[in-house]
Amino acid sequence: MRIKRYDAAPPELDMTPMIDMTFQLICFFMVALSFDEADRSEKVRLPSSELAKPADAPFELPITLQLTREGTVLYAGEELALANLGSRLVNEVQVMERLGKHPADATVIIRADGDAPTGKVQELIQACQERRFEIFALRARQEQG
Question: pLDDT digits over 84-100, tens only?
Fold first, then answer.
């Protein structure tokens, strides 16, 4: 019995499904990832500190407030006067209570500009304490070297 040999070209792989799946994974991770840059603003320049160190673990219920050098507060993408922040914090408290959480369990992260008046930082903390927030984390830029 004679075996016939065919000089056929090697089989080609269709890469379309693999490219499609890769594109879908890239889209998924872009949507699913939380970017910390959303909590930062170029309007706020943190002061330097030798004692500054990164947090050991992410906070469970973080609320980021950024105090500019003019004394306004950046919260949820809006620039607010310090006097107008109270109503936004009340809304935050109401949402937390609906979820069965307490404001005392949340961590308020304060990013204050290095040139912001110290009194404004104290007013910001007091406004938060009036809405039953108790845990605060002040941010500073870690000095290199």
Answer: 888 888 888 898 899 89
